Structure formats: structure tokens, C-alpha cells
Amino acid sequence: MQPFSLPTTLLGIALASLALLPAAQAATPALDPLTQPIASPYAEQWNRPQQPARIHGDTYYVGVGGLSVVLIHTQEGLILIDGALPQSVEAIKEHILELGFRVEDIKFILNTEAHFDHSGGIAALARDSGAQVVASPLGAQALRAGKVIDSDPQAGEIDPMPAVENVREIADGEILQLGEVSVMARYTPGHTPGSTSWTWVSCEDAEREECLSVVFGASLTPVAADDFHYLADARHADLTPAFRRVMQDFAKLPCDILISAHPDHSGADEKLRRLLVGVTPNPFIDTQACSKYAASNEAKLDARIAKEKAKASESAPK
Q1: Packing angle, helices 240-251 and 289-315, rounded to 10
Q2: Whose C-alpha in 19, 240, 250, 318 is 20 to 30 A from the C-alpha of 54?
Q3: Which residues, in sequence order, are CB contacts of 99 under 8 Å at separation 6+?
Q4: pLDDT value at residue 20
Q5: What tens digit of pLDDT does each residue of 68-83 get?
Q6: Do the Cβ atoms of 198 and 216 come closer than 8 Å?
Q7: Is beta strand 257-260 parallel, antiparallel or unpaired with respect to 175-178?
Q8: Distance from first CA to last CA of the chain, Å, rounded?
Q9: Distance CA 184, CA 173 (A)
């Protein structure tokens, strides 16, 4: 019996196909562990498309529809505030490029709160830009761990996020300087133990004469797990006086423009829509925005406390 052999043409095709296998496998991109989507019933709503925009002067909106991310341009580079979801990273990077900036020029990434909807994209953005991440000490603790700390009101209900290894801690009232821009950290704990709002002056001109005070406000909503109490319990003293002081102090901030971490919490989503269609004067300019934001959230705290008291009354011995 003659040994089996392929015709020359078929043999050549087979060998060529085998040679292409490693190349095809190499061409398949590996999944990026830092941008894998976090499943949430709100993820689609939060991550909906949003056109980027110049809000005022050197301040730009580069976030997605339901999660604010802000870019500040300085003569020495860029400052980014928050990172939205891991699955928001590509949109944020595209927005930065669309506005004429480079991701590689981001020097600092500041964080308002270490929950996955505001911090989930920070690890990837820090890796891709080489930027230094900055947060409060308790915020930094959560970012390094990739999960909320035990004292967080939503502990046990918040998904983990990609951990951020290198986080610089910043003190309350400390100023971060980059070029001509000074950004101040303002601790606003309550929604999370390490929540931090950020304030700076945004200018329309190089002489820095046409300037407004901008606040990027961390969430102030008293959202919590069912077994968490803002009132005193076996784990802690009454947290409500301190949370009220945070809101009252927030209301007094120099505040011509407010951008809240969730734009719909302050009407920033509607302001952004109007800005993009050319409404004048600038719809973001509202000197009462911070006081209204604080008052709205204090009303929510009142409702939460009333709910806690009613529940305690129902479970009290008759």
C-alpha cells in the first residue's frame, strides 16, 4: 500500500492555516481586568451616552449621562475628578480626546467617593495616564482595598471595584496645586465615611480676571443599608448632627457653579443639555446651587431619620 499523501496544493493550504493559528490567537485582544463591566440595575442608566462640553473657562464635563467626571485644564497638565464605572473608561477617554486634550497629560485623578459608580474607572484611567490618584484617608483606604470600608452606610450592598494601588492622601482644606489652578479638598462625609468635595476657581481668560467659583460636590444623600442607622445604635453614636453640619457647611461654600457627582441630583443634567444647545447665559451659573443641593439632601436626611424612628417604635416592646 502506498503511503498516504496530500496533493501539493492541499498540503500547502493546510500548512498555511496552521501557521496562521498563532497569529489569529495573538490578534484576539485579551480582556482588560480593569474595565470589565460591573453589573448593576442602574448601570445602563448611569452609563448612557453624553456629549462632552466646556462648562466654564478651564472646566470641562467628560463624564457619562448619569455620572459626572470633570476635567480641569492647566498650563502644567490636566486634573480629572472621578472615574465613573469601569465600563465608562473608553467613553471618558474619547471625550477627553474629542475636546482636544491627551489622556497622557492627566497629572492627578481626584476622587469624591469610593463607590464603584464614581471610582470603578479610576484604576484603568490611572494606569493609562500615569496620573497620581488623590483621596481622603478613608477614601484612599477603600480605593486600595477595592471595596467599601466596614463603616460605610452601604457596606454589604456595594459591589467591589478594581483596586488602586498608589493613592495619595489629602487633608481637609488642603490645596492641590497644578500650574495656575488650586483645587481644595473639602471633606463631606456622610454618604460615605471618606466623601470629599472639591472646589476651585475657573477662569475664562489667561489673566484670570473673569473667574467663577466651582464646586464638584460629592453625593450627600443618606442612602444606607436597611440595617444601618444614622441614629445612635450599638455600633456608633448619633451620626445625624455631624451629617447636618456637613450639609450646612456645604451650603456656605463659594459656589457660582455646582457639578454634583450624580448630575441629576442637582439638575446638572438639564443644565448640561441646555448648555449644549447654546442657551445663554450659561445655565450652570447659579449662586444658590450649593445651598439648594444641601437643603434637598437635608430633607432626605429628615425623611430617613423619621423612617428609622418609626421602625424603632414598631419593634419596641409593647
Answers
A1: 170
A2: 250
A3: 52, 54, 60, 62, 71
A4: 52
A5: 999 999 999 999 999 9
A6: yes
A7: unpaired
A8: 99
A9: 6
